[in-house]
Design goal:
The protein is an alpha/beta fold and 538 residues long. 48% of the residues lie in helices and 16% in strands.
Length: 538
């Protein structure tokens, strides 16, 4: 290999490493502030060397970054994992290639401003499309360095993405000034201002976060006692070794032990996602699990249970009620991934997960993919290849206790979406629960990354969070994103604690993703300028 190309490969690999470490090693989020610098240098070197296929080096960086951090998706589904890695990398590469085009048509700093704004606009849009995988949103690099981003209550996670790009471009600009000889031509004041600017860009948000951290007091209008049950069932063997009745008995025995020495007072029992699959919403009282839960709650006055369930609506109609319905007997069945709030008596409250995992739960763009899925299923003589869960159009709240305290319950993947979780608080949620089942990925970085995103939601919303995972990690998280108590991974465990209730709303909740909207506007303006430059001769 020629030496110049070896340098390009080395720089690209260094960027991939620096981008990956914040998702793999705790407290390394600061590396994201310099992670793009080697790739930007490689791009400048490639401009000088003019090798063929200059897209290869950024493509390598993005594929390596995605593979190193999200390879664990392949444990659940190889096809889905490969699609997540390469599909995400292709979109990142497309952003980079548009930046390369902008460098040919724009001068000075404009192409780099275009790159940062375009990347963040893409991240913001990625939260709302059908095929959505925003796991590597740059602001998420600080999910395990939460003491540095307490200001997310103002900007949300995309404020962190903006910080990453401003820091990277500032450092790169300073290096270019030194290498091009501009630094030597500047007077002392100009050098001091440039150096001070970089220091402020990097250290300013950290200092601000420290001040917010030290001054912050937990907001509490009341508290709710919570018992989290982590039953630790292997999802791949869930019904091979244990029946649903046996699983229910195990979970309820955990709760029974935790409640044995408690006074009769309100307590929320929290169980994981998809704990049961026998709840038909047309006739919920026929569910054996619900019957057993109600009997248990009647024996423990004041207790209510929030648990995950695969639920169903059955329709005895000739026409399908929705494109995502499947034939069932002489009618149709519609599936949901739900959170259920049960009491000793009375109607249950049900919330259907809306942010569904593509492929396993969601058939994206159903007018296109449902007929294709039906055709492939018929050809291969198997059941549907894609999940067809149906979610709600928006959030709804669950309510607990005599005062009917409003709670938001994010089901699994939904906890990755900051703007979506903010909708719970806008609707009146005073605390947040998260129920999940991360066991599909095995003992990989996936479940730790997922837990860390819950800490960011606590900061953005300033809400206490009770998180229940089937196999871990379950946790109580305070309003500063601190993990107060956690379970071990892959153990049967019960956690007991309380969450504060608060009605205050952060700036992020009140006004949404300001950083993302501003960057989207800047991107659109610069994209219009680029289009004009492309279609005109000059």
């Amino acid at each position: 290999m020629r030496k110049p190309q070896a340098i390009l490969w080395l720089l690209s690999a260094l960027s991939a490493l620096l981008l990956s470490l914040p998702w793999l090693v705790p407290h390394t989020g600061a590396l994201a502030l310099v992670a793009f610098v080697p790739l930007l240098i490689a791009d400048a070197v490639a401009d000088q060397l003019r090798p063929r296929a200059r897209w290869v080096w950024p493509a390598f960086t993005f594929v390596a970054w995605n593979a190193a951090t999200t390879f664990w998706v392949c444990n659940a589904t190889v096809g889905g994992g490969l699609f997540a890695i390469f599909g995400n990398a292709v979109q990142m590469l497309a952003v980079w290639l548009l930046f390369r085009l902008a460098k040919k048509k724009m001068r000075g700093a404009l192409p780099y401003i275009f790159l940062a704004a375009m990347w963040i606009a893409w991240e913001r849009h990625y939260f709302d499309v059908d095929i959505s995988w925003p796991w590597l949103t740059l602001g998420g690099a600080f999910a395990r360095s939460t003491r540095t981003v307490q200001w997310y209550e103002y900007t949300g996670m995309l404020g962190g993405s903006l910080w990453v790009w401003v820091a990277n471009l500032g450092i790169y600009g300073l290096l270019v000034a030194v290498s091009d000889g501009l630094w030597q031509r500047w007077n002392g004041l100009a050098r001091a201002c440039a150096s001070l600017g970089i220091i402020l860009v990097i250290a300013g948000p950290v200092v601000a976060s420290k001040l917010i951290w030290d001054a912050y007091d937990e907001r509490s209008e009341a508290t709710v006692d919570v018992v989290i049950g982590q039953p630790n069932f292997d999802p791949y063997e869930k019904f091979q070794s244990l029946s649903q009745a046996q699983q229910t008995d195990i979970l309820l025995s955990q709760f029974d032990d935790a409640l044995a020495h408690r006074a009769e007072q309100p307590v929320l029992l929290l169980a994981p996602e998809t704990f049961t699959g026998d709840l038909v919403l047309n006739e919920p009282e026929r569910s054996a699990t619900l019957q057993r839960v109600r009997a248990f709650l009647a024996e423990h006055p004041g207790a209510e249970m929030l648990f995950g369930a695969s639920t169903y609506d059955i329709y005895d109609t000739h026409a399908a009620p929705t494109l995502l319905a499947r034939p069932y007997g002489g009618g149709w069945i519609v599936s949901h991934n739900s959170a259920v709030m049960a009491r000793p008596e009375g109607p249950v409250e049900v919330y259907h997960k809306s942010k569904l995992v593509v492929g396993t739960e969601l058939t994206p763009y159903p007018k296109i993919f449902v007929p294709l899925d039906n055709w492939l299923s018929a050809k291969m003589k198997v059941g549907g290849l894609m999940g067809r869960c149906v979610g709600q159009d928006g959030v709804s709240l669950l309510h607990f206790g005599p005062q009917r305290a409003p709670l938001g319950c994010a089901v699994c993947y939904e906890s990755v979406y900051g703007e979506y979780c903010a909708e719970y608080v806008r609707a009146g949620a005073q605390a947040l629960a998260i129920i999940t089942n991360d066991a599909w990925w095995g003992n990989t970085p996936g479940y730790r990354q997922h837990l860390s995103y819950a800490a960011l939601r606590a900061i953005e919303l300033r809400r206490d969070i009770a998180r229940c995972g089937n196999t871990g990690i379950s946790a109580f998280i305070d309003q500063r994103g601190e993990l107060l108590e956690t379970s071990a991974w892959w153990t049967r465990e019960t956690l007991t604690g309380s969450v504060n209730l608060s009605s205050e709303q952060t700036l992020f909740v009140q006004h949404g993703d300001i950083a993302g909207r501003v960057c989207t506007l800047v991107f659109l303006l610069l994209a219009a300028l680029l289009l004009v430059r492309v279609i005109t001769k000059r």
